Structure formats: C-alpha cells, structure tokens
C-alpha cells in the first residue's frame, strides 16, 4: 500500500474510489480499480456522543502528537477537559488539549466564546507548572468575548424554569454571549478589545444592559456593571492576550494548503447540540459533528475522519430528560467509581446505563467513522449490565430518538440485560485480554449503533488505552 499525499482523490481521478475506513494514524483507505490506496487525512474530529464529559480530552491528548494543530471551535469555559500526563492532571476549559506538546499549535477558533479572566488564569496555571502556552496558542480575533453582563444574565435566566425544570447551566455566561453574538448589537469580539472606540462601545452596551436586565437581575448584580471598570478590565485583557490574537481562519486554511494535519476538539456532547440535542436542555453551540466547519472555518471537504467518543454508560449534568438515569444505589455506584463530578462546576453528574438509542442517533448525526468507548473500567464490578435498545413512548416501542424533550421525558427505556464481567479491567492493554463478557458488551454496543469500535479506554492514564485500528 502506498501513501498518496493528495488530499482529495475524488478530485484528481475519474476512477470511482470507495472509502473503506479511516484510522487513528491519519490515513483513509480507498479502493479503486487498481486496488487499495491510502490517503493522508487532513482533519480528524473528536466528538462527544452523549451529554458531554465523555473523556474527549484524553483522546485528543493521545492523538495530538500525530497532528500539527489542535483546534477548539465551539463552547467556552463551560467545558472542562481533563488531561493526565504521568502523575500530572491538567484541567483545561478553553485551551485545546494539545497544549502540553510544545511542537503542536493550539487554536481557539471563532466559534468559541472566550471568558478572558478564566483564559488568563488557565494560561498562568499552566505556566506555574512549567508549560509555556504562550508559545503555541492562538486565539481568533473573531471569537466573541463573555462579558461581565453575560454572567449576570446567565444567573438571572437560570433562575427561570422551563416546563417545570431549570436548564441548570454552568453559569459561565455562555448562552447570553451566544445570544448577543446572534443579536449582534451588543456583541464584543476579541478584535474589539483593540479598537479605538472600545470605551464608547462598552458604555453603550452597559447602559442598554442595565435597562434590559433590570426586570430579571438583582439590584446588587446590576451594580457590578460599571462601564469604566469594565473598560479598564478590557484593556488589561487586551494587554495579556494581545500577542495571542490572530486571524485563525486564514491561518488554518493556509496550513491545510501546506499539508498540515488538524485535530478538531469538540466540547460538550452531541445531545447538548443547540439544533439537534435535547432542546431546550442543551448548550448554545453546535456540539455535535455538524458544528466543526462553522465554528472553525475549516470547510467540510477537509474533514475526513470523525471519531465519536462515548462512555460505556451515560451521564448528564444539569437539567433535562435522561431516560436511562439511575436514581438508586447503582447510579451512586457508577458515580463513585467513575468519580462523576463536574470538572467545571463540581456538580455531581447524573448517572445511568448506556443508551444505544441516543448514541446511535448522535453517531449518525455526527457522521462518525468509529467509536472510542471510554471508562470500561468503571463497569468492572457489576453482576449484570443493562443497555437501552429502544424506548417505550405512550405504549409504543420506538427506536428513533425523539425531537421533543417532553417526549423524551416520557420515554421508558427498554433494556437488554448483559452479563457483567466482575473483574478489574483497568490493567487490560489488548483486546484479547478483556474478559469474554466485556468483549460481548463492546460488540453489542458496536452492533447497536452500527459503528465499529476503534478505541477502548480502561482508565485515565495514557497507557490505559487500546487502539484497535
Ligand atoms: P451552558 O452551556 O452553561 O449554557 O449549560 C447548558 C447545559 O449544558 C447545562 O445542562 C450544562 O450542565 C450542560 N453543559 C455545558 N457544558 C457542559 C460540559 O462541558 N459537560 C457537560 N455538560 C455541560
């Protein structure tokens, strides 16, 4: 087999080629009349298939050395990515998970909303531990800034209840910042931090926000919105972040033309996608695979390898329907063993069995080539395991993920029982070494979501990862 460095074989050949599969080594296999060929992958994406927290950071960290650039393209400081390197544990919120390798460039693209205080704290935290993020980090001038009024608005609207339940946001100002991005009039982008009319802009927005927010926010919260102080804060941010701000859109397009390899790091999970998730109990960005191009500026034709990441069970933080949730000792057992507490907010995560209806939906939506199944070790000590294979909604059995949160709330999971393996698998390093029942569990999940399993994870360390392709 030869490695054909052309990026798009369909463009340079009249011979029809069939895609056979992509793997973790940045190669897509095609077959044509001349036999099998391999071509170099331009952009690989790592996408969460559940409600976030699928351990995407670990996978990105492992794949990063095979790439030149890691790109965060949506979400903001609501995300919490944990990367474990040796005995060191790094918790990242904005900064892409490739930051620990000095030879890799890390890009925060236009689709991310940046909270500068938090970003600066993250940078300083890394510097205090000997990492030098200022050398290999770029932030888009087009990215929007989470401003102090967005926190006030997030807290105020989070107190409101939709259909008897609060969204339970992370209170990081994410929704209000995206709302202003779409509304345009009151938006602040990174590039605005350097503009001559920044003081006027801030004053105008603060005046408007104090009026708009007065029916919702507490007077003490409104008092914090002081235009002069916010302006001074913006100047401090621009001084700290100035050297990192760049036109990342053109940078990425240039690097792709030059043959560089990109790793696109999704935040949150596909079920939290603003358009395709469990609306309104979602985040405010396209957290599924459909968001990669829009958020990064990388055209879809370059994206040729999509890895879906799911835990071997399910978790959710915040409000919203969760059919396989376990409000019992089993749920608590998963929470305890899996240390299921939010990286960003510390909130206990809701835990439940693997939901194959939901993951089949998101695997198709995100167009994944293969699955990375995480946290297999957490299920080590169970006599039996359950996988949701269908829902029962108003007496009818359905296998299609419903579009209304209200319907999902009424869906009762139809479970298939599988035998547990009752054996610690955290030391397993080869597929053959998994207990038979664990192999059966993996195979059944793959079958139910119609996607091959390409990666298995049995613990937080880099070595606790088994690559199958
Ligand atoms: P927001 O993104 O802060 O607006 O929160 C909206 C919903 O998304 C809430 O239910 C959050 O708990 C959830 N959420 C946001 N970011 C994450 C994440 O990184 N992991 C898991 N859930 C998240």
Please describe what this structure looks like.
By secondary structure, this protein is of the alpha/beta class. The chain has 2 domains: 2-140 and 247-467, Adenylosuccinate Synthetase, subunit A, domain 3 (Adenylosuccinate Synthetase, Chain A, domain 3, Alpha-Beta Complex), CATH 3.90.170; 144-244, Adenylosuccinate Synthetase, subunit A, domain 2 (Orthogonal Bundle). The chain is built from 13 helices and 24 strands. A 10-stranded mixed beta sheet has the order 13-11-9-6-14-5-15-19-23-24, sandwiched between helices. α3 crosses α4 (174-183). The chain is globular, with a radius of gyration of 23 Å. Inosinic acid (IMP) binds next to α4.
DSSP, total strands: 24
| Rounded Rg | 23 Å
Number of domains: 2
What is the CATH topology assignment of the largest domain? Adenylosuccinate Synthetase, Chain A, domain 3
Instruction: Give the neighbour order of strands across the main sheet.
Output: 13-11-9-6-14-5-15-19-23-24
CATH architecture annotation of the largest domain: Alpha-Beta Complex
**Major beta-sheet overview:** 10 strands, mixed
Shape category: globular
- Total DSSP helices: 13
The CATH first-level class of the largest domain comes to Alpha Beta
Low-pLDDT stretches: 1-20
Q: What hetero molecules are in the model?
A: inosinic acid
The CATH homologous superfamily of the largest domain is termed Adenylosuccinate Synthetase, subunit A, domain 3
